[in-house]
UniProtKB/TrEMBL annotation:
Cofactor: Zn(2+)
Recorded superkingdom: Bacteria
Lineage, uppermost ranks: Bacteria, Pseudomonadati, Pseudomonadota, Alphaproteobacteria, Hyphomicrobiales
Position of the signal peptide: none
PANTHER family, A to Z: METALLOPROTEASE (PTHR11851), MITOCHONDRIAL-PROCESSING PEPTIDASE SUBUNIT ALPHA (PTHR11851:SF49)
UniProt domain Peptidase M16 N-terminal: residue ranges: 14-160
Gene Ontology terms describing biological process: proteolysis
PROSITE patterns named among the record's database cross-references: INSULINASE (PS00143)
Descriptive protein name: Putative Zn-dependent peptidase
Family: Belongs to the peptidase M16 family.
Keywords for this protein: Hydrolase, Metalloprotease, Protease
InterPro entries in the cross-refs: Metalloenz_LuxS/M16, MPP/UQCRC_Complex, Pept_M16_N, Pept_M16_Zn_BS, Peptidase_M16_C
């Protein structure tokens, strides 16, 4: 299952992985642009553009787009993130030309009609309201706003009601012209696809894409700040998110951070799950994560628990962070590697997952990365590197605390920060 890559004269990159045992193809267009590429008065426009792409073109109505792909049993969708946007489809192999045509149509010929725009604004306003009614969404949005205050990286991808209702078709076109250019776009397919034939289809249908931006793309360098935000609500559970500045994709410690997150809270055998849920029964859900961006990252621990458990829960979490800087067992590293390897291999069994993985690697690293190369990067991670990283991540940087729900028993922020900066007890350190 070799990955083949062709760069067209226009600058557009086309990548495929043929999986001949399949009858379907997952394909899409990934753009190296997201909410971080918005200007101050464009907050939420990247997400609105993703919606509007499906609301009619010069050749198709919004209903035509939906019916044509579903008439052949296919599906089409899109997603907006902080640094990327994707438009993708899944069809049987005989209908790849149709899927390519529809994706090209919505990305090069979208009409952005006023009446459709007004209707879609209302849809997004409902989406914003739904997110605000979901505490585990709110706690993450508040976290980002606090960790990266007054920066594009800290803003919610959906935008605000005020910004969303203000957008005009011309503003959408301006954002499109700056960011949807061939040097920032990757067309990827995985499944029952022939590379040369797919390249010919893409070259023909995407010929009208601009090769240079109408203005330089916007990107603001991230500045991690940290801090605390609390919102008391009458809820069943308190949502707690404690985090730190993580590592960017290209940083030396990026993969080390992924392993550390896995050891701390990556599954049922992880330290936090075992100590917090299985032994103490303090919460139903707890996990650790590490998100990388182009110039920064986030390492976080998220837990949901009853307000009465907060006085015990937070100290236990912090104690586990202290322990990770003091000792890590080799078997924990091996388990984390095995989990990552399994995720990589299982992902290759899904053409949609494989197409997305290839697209991310093209955008981040300029080319596909083999599983062998990925595992070789993980092999160099040692106990010493992990404990050193834990010490620097958790105790040498300003934490960010985001909490929502019944918070009356949550310790003052200054006490939590003080417990993070406290040294390990000498007796414990010596025994490790």
């Amino acid at each position: 299952m070799t990955v083949e890559c062709t760069r067209l004269k226009s600058g557009l990159t086309v990548v495929t992985q043929t999986m001949p045992h399949l009858e379907s193809v997952a394909l899409g267009v990934w753009i190296k642009s997201g909410s971080r590429n918005e200007t101050e008065d464009e907050h939420g426009i990247a997400h609105l553009l993703e919606h509007m792409a499906f609301k009619g073109t010069a050749r198709r109505s919004a209903r035509d787009i939906a019916e044509e792909i579903e008439d052949v049993g296919g599906e089409v969708n899109a997603a907006t993130s902080t640094e990327t946007t994707s438009y993708y489809a899944r069809v049987l192999k005989d209908y790849v030309p149709l899927a390519v045509d529809i994706l090209a149509d919505i990305l090069t010929e979208s009409a952005f009609e006023e009446d459709e725009l007004e209707r879609e604004k209302q849809v997004i306003l409902q989406e914003i309201n739904a997110a605000n009614d979901t505490p585990d969404d709110v706690v993450f949005d508040k976290f980002s706003e606090t960790a990266y205050r007054n920066q594009t990286l800290g803003r919610a991808i959906l935008g605000t009601p005020e910004t969303v209702v203000s957008f005009s078709p011309q503003q959408i076109r301006n954002y499109l012209g700056r960011n949807y250019t061939t040097d920032r776009m990757f067309v990827v397919a995985a499944g029952a696809v022939d590379h040369d034939e797919f390249v010919r289809m893409v070259e023909q249908r995407f010929a009208s894409l601009p090769t240079a931006p109408s203005a330089p793309p916007v990107i603001e360098t991230a500045r991690y700040i940290g801090g605390s935000v609390r919102e008391t609500r009458d809820l069943m559970d308190a949502q707690i998110l404690l985090g730190f500045e993580g590592k960017a994709y290209h940083a030396r410690d990026f993969y080390c951070s992924q392993i550390l997150a896995n050891i701390l809270g990556g599954g049922m055998s992880s330290r936090l799950f075992q100590e917090v849920r299985e032994i103490r029964g303090l919460c139903y859900s707890i996990y650790a994560f590490h998100w990388g961006f182009s110039d920064t990252g986030i390492f976080g621990i998220h837990a949901a628990t009853g307000g009465e458990n907060l006085p015990e829960l937070v100290p236990v979490i912090i104690d586990e962070l202290h322990k990770s800087a003091g000792f890590i067992e080799q078997k924990e590293i091996e388990r984390a590697r095995a989990q990552i390897r399994a995720q990589l291999l299982m992902g290759q069994e899904s053409p949609a997952a494989r197409a997305g993985q290839i697209a991310r690697q093209m955008m981040l690293y300029g080319g596909p990365i083999s599983n062998q190369e990925m595992m070789e990067r993980l092999e160099g991670i040692t106990i010493e590197r992990l404990t050193d990283l834990a010490g620097r991540l958790f105790f040498d940087t300003v934490p960010t605390l985001s909490a929502i729900g019944p918070l009356e028993q949550l310790a003052p922020t200054e006490d939590i920060v003080a417990s993070l900066s406290a040294p390990l007890p000498q007796s414990k350190t010596a025994s490790r």
